[in-house]
Backbone:
């Protein structure tokens, strides 16, 4: 259990990350390769992973550097996920490169002590010139297997931010912290986090806390090992599969009302989805997605927001009520 202790000053400085953190997504993705847990949620990504890694010529580096360095264990080095990653891949990688050699050396020594069979060659990354190779490798890995799925990652994180925003508006900071279920529980002034890695107390001491929703984080939240670093808590998105909605038995009354394609799209949008996700999951063309989402938007069943080059669709209260079969309660209100 991780117990995060808040003061009044900390509660005033709770924030939710505005975008996916690419270094945490790299970390989570490498952890996903080291377990079979939750593979259903990443089936499409895993299917593409092998060919993309092979095509990028990263198979050997994956085995000898990335998986040993980003080991899924009670500890992996904090310098791999600097706070600068919140601003994007390039600032994050620069921070990895510029990390003080003494700090990196200490973290790598700790890694080799805690993890069995860690390749001794990893210690070379304490030297800045060796870290240049690591930074290049991380960029190539990101471009090969993370970037092609960036629309889905952004859509998931944006949807989660919308959920947290609603919790904040309706319940304040307490409502926001209380919405971080099921692995976290708000017991004022402590946020209890299910944390298999260790049992510890973490005092924020007025520094606040940045909550970072992550697509590749699975099941349990993750925190930095060094309590002196800026406090962050990485937590998993809700991976209730949109693809399950596609394959479940049709809601015949809904399909009769708005058409089978729009009924499928509405069910997928229940988890938040981008145009590319809707096209892929519904098996239709992007142009057809645009046609149907316009109709659903005009009927006030979904709302759409543009984030950079991605359009994210979410249900409106009317759309959610129609999907659940309780539309009459909305009309009555």
Residues:
């Amino acid at each position: 259990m991780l117990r995060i202790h808040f003061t009044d000053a900390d509660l005033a400085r709770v924030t939710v990350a505005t975008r996916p953190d690419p270094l945490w997504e790299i970390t989570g993705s490498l952890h996903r390769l080291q377990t079979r847990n939750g593979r259903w949620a990443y089936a499409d990504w895993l299917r593409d992973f092998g060919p993309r890694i092979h095509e990028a010529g990263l198979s050997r580096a994956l085995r000898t550097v990335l998986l040993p360095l980003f080991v899924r264990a009670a500890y992996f080095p904090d310098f791999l996920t600097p706070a600068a990653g919140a601003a994007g891949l390039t600032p994050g990688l620069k921070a990895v490169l510029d990390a003080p050699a003494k700090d990196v050396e200490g973290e790598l020594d700790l890694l080799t002590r805690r993890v069995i069979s860690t390749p001794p060659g990893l210690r070379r990354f304490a030297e800045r010139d060796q870290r240049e190779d690591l930074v290049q490798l991380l960029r190539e890995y990101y471009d090969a297997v993370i970037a092609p799925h960036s629309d889905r990652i952004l859509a998931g994180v944006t949807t989660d931010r919308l959920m947290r925003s609603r919790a904040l508006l309706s319940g304040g900071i307490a409502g926001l912290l209380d919405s971080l279920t099921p692995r976290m529980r708000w017991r004022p002034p402590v946020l209890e986090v299910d944390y298999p890695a260790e049992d510890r107390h973490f005092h924020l001491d007025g520094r606040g806390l940045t909550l970072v929703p992550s697509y590749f984080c699975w099941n349990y939240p993750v925190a930095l090992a060094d309590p002196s670093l800026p406090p962050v808590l990485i937590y998993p998105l809700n991976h209730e599969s949109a693809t399950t909605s596609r394959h479940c038995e049709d809601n015949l009354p809904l399909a009769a009302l708005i058409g089978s394609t729009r009924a499928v799209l509405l069910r997928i949008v229940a988890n938040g989805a981008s145009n590319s996700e809707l096209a892929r999951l519904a098996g239709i063309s992007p142009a057809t997605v645009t046609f149907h989402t316009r109709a659903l938007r005009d009927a006030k069943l979904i709302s759409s927001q543009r984030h950079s080059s991605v359009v994210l669709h979410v249900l409106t209260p009317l759309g959610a009520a129609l999907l659940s079969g309780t539309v009459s309660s909305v009309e009555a209100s």
